[in-house]
Design goal:
This protein is globular. The strands form 3 sheets. The chain has a 4-stranded parallel β-sheet with strand order 3-4-5-8, covered by helices on one side. Strands 1-2 form a two-stranded antiparallel sheet. A hairpin with a 4-residue loop joins strand 1 and strand 2. Helix 2 runs parallel beside helix 3 and helix 3 runs parallel beside helix 7. Helices cover 45% and strands 13% of the residues. It is α/β, with parallel strands linked by helices. It has a domain of 117 residues.
Amino acid sequence: MYGFGIPDMDYSKVMWDESIREIPKMWMDHPYSYTGETFSVPERDIFPHVVTKPHPPLWVACGNPGTFEKAGKMGLGVLCFTIGAPSELKKLIDVYKDAVSKCTDPVGGFVNDNLMCVTHLCCLPDREEAFRLNTDAKMFYYQSLVYRWLDTFPKPDMVPDWPAVMPEPTIDELKAMVDMGIIAVGNPDDCAGVMQQYKDAGADQVVVSPMTTTLPYDVTVESCRLFGEKVIPRFDTDPTFRSDRNRQTALNR
């Protein structure tokens, strides 16, 4: 922020609030022009033109409770980058779902009622092998970095101040995390149990990020293949993507 001459971090919120309402107009209005408080654009055609009508779904990354509510009020989808058990994330999900259910004036052309969570994945036929591999995959090193990059997110007590990093988990700690739904590690039944916890918490999507660790490439490929064959079909029974349905519903009105 300071490198771009923005003297006050709080002012970035004013800039964001103004720009998020204009971005969909840049996609839809040809030509587009705008004169506002934080930026201006002379009349011109904005490229590239979007193919998806009225425009692609709008999302915002959320870590603070207030952002979840704000996203819902604006009709934005949420990329939930808060780390924790689904039972804890449910409080934030409920805040978003309540706000988005009441949204009548979305910033874009439709309400993107969609909340995505992120977790670590290692799905293997041998659950003990999966646990063993993840005791030294630098999973917690990456999480420690996340709170260094995103220093406005609330930092849990278990995350030390940089440059200290969280120690790698033991097998018992990994199993406890799986039971709580924090990570999806083990065999397909273990991973399905974690996905069920996210579903019960109200998440619409779960994205996994196995390549943010040092797990071997072939292990990651096998994990994704097994997860796709054995776990995803248990939950993803809808042939239409949620954002596509939200957009089509708006177009049909």
